[in-house]
Design goal:
With 417 residues, the protein is of the alpha+beta class. The chain contains 11 helices and 13 strands. It has a 4-stranded mixed β-sheet, with helices on one face. The termini are far apart.
Length: 417
């Protein structure tokens, strides 16, 4: 039974945000622009940043393309941005004062210019001091996995993502007509040691039309909150972790009472401001680099995907119950400057031994990572909402557990030696 006091148990909380959250909208725009370019130029160099606010969108950054088709796509960046805003759901019907953002009428500004040639000589094979493709920047990247869920994700962030995913399904299907695009979820899990023992608190805040606001009680109408409980929260929890569903879970549904003004009209959105939502909800560590708008030559993206792939395969192989992998790179150099691993006391193998196994089983040079994970494809828009990890689908190659037997074999050989 979850404890009611926030200080009285071993609790951990993670949050997620919907596709209509202004920061997530910015991420999706940046990745939609990247997809429009990489579809025509697999070797595009891109670092696209987006800002959105009340009826205004701006993209800026560095882009270098190598084909005529990609140049044409770059010329059509405004259409790409507006279509992305439409897909997310910002379509002002003309009678909704809370929207304040519309794909047709919003002001648009582009400040995109070519990538620095000084960076290019370090990234492009043979262009600089070295024959191999080097890392697009220095930095440190982390990947994490644990056995709390079938997706090998921590339970709090996994549930938070599934809740906003469910909100999007209902909104886009028109099943709950008063839902609007902006939303946030938050899940607090009670742990017994490192095992989830109960759900303590769930917070769900969603933008809505004025029709479900009760001005007398100054809050969302009771029937609307009950609908969110019965059609969003309960189905997700009963599907993902049925044993943890309880009527004693603390639910905070639209706790401010009113959430009509939202999206870019309620808050400025920027690419890369939801790095914890994008990864593990605060579990493990984070190197500080964001993903969206960056082509895979940027190790902020590709090496973080590889670190997750490694950690997930280690846990799936039964070599640890929790695993965190750190990779670090120097700009222009192909080999990582360090490989580190932490299993938090859940493995019988020493961390140094596991790190050596990783170097034997997985490619860690930037060009090899890109090839191994098949990252020169227009797959990135889908990653920019509902989390980059713990997902299914053709885009998410880093979620495959296809190296389990290789790791087990390497571990057996290590034990024999």
């Amino acid at each position: 039974m979850p404890l009611k006091h926030p200080w009285a148990a071993n609790l951990f909380t993670s949050e997620s945000v919907s596709m209509g959250h202004p920061d997530k909208l910015a991420d999706q725009i940046s990745d939609a622009v990247l997809d429009s370019l990489i579809a025509h130029d697999p070797d595009v160099r891109a670092a696209v940043e987006t800002l959105v606010t009340t009826n205004f969108a701006m993209v800026a950054g560095e882009v270098t393309v190598h084909t005529d088709a990609a140049r044409k796509a770059l010329e059509q960046v405004e259409q790409t941005v507006r279509e992305t805003i439409r897909k997310v759901g910002y379509i002002d019907p003309g009678d909704d004062p809370g929207i304040g953002f519309d794909y047709r009428s919003c002001e648009f500004v582009s400040r995109i210019h070519p990538q620095s040639s000084d960076i290019d000589i370090g990234v492009t094979a043979g262009a600089g001091l070295y024959d191999e493709q080097g890392a697009g920047d220095q930095g440190l990247m982390f990947g994490f996995a644990c056995d709390e869920t079938k997706a090998f994700m921590p339970l709090p962030i996994h549930l938070a993502h599934r809740l906003v995913e469910r909100l999007a399904e209902l909104r886009q299907a028109g099943a709950i007509g008063w839902l609007k695009p902006d939303a946030k979820t938050q899940v607090t899990v009670e742990y017994d040691g490192d095992t989830p023992a109960g759900l303590h608190t769930i917070v769900l805040s969603t933008q809505h039309t004025d029709s479900v606001f009760d001005p007398k009680r100054r809050q969302m109408r009771l029937e609307a909150r009950q609908q969110l409980r019965d059609e969003v929260i309960r189905p997700v929890i009963q599907r993902e972790c049925p044993k943890l569903w309880s009527d004693d879970i603390i639910l905070h549904i639209n706790p401010t009472g009113r959430f009509v003004i939202g999206g870019p009209n309620g808050d400025c959105g920027l690419t890369g401001r939801k790095v914890i939502v994008d990864t593990y909800g605060g579990r493990g560590r984070h190197g500080g680099g964001a993903f969206s708008g960056k082509d895979p030559s940027k190790v902020d993206r590709s090496a973080t995907y590889m670190a997750r792939h490694i950690a997930k395969n280690v846990v799936a192989a039964g070599l640890a119950r929790q695993c965190e992998v750190q990779l670090a790179y120097a700009i222009g150099l192909a080999e990582p400057v360090s490989v580190a691993l932490d299993t938090f006391g859940t493995s019988e193998l020493a961390a140094g031994s596991l790190a050596r196994i990783i170097g034997e089983v997985f490619p860690l040079k930037p060009a090899a990572i890109i090839e191994y994970l098949d990252l020169r494809r227009p797959i990135y828009f889908e990653t920019a909402r509902h989390g980059h990890f713990g997902r299914r689908g053709d885009a998410f190659t880093w979620e495959k557990t296809d190296r389990v037997e290789d790791l087990r074999k390497a571990a057996r050989l290590l034990e024999v030696a």
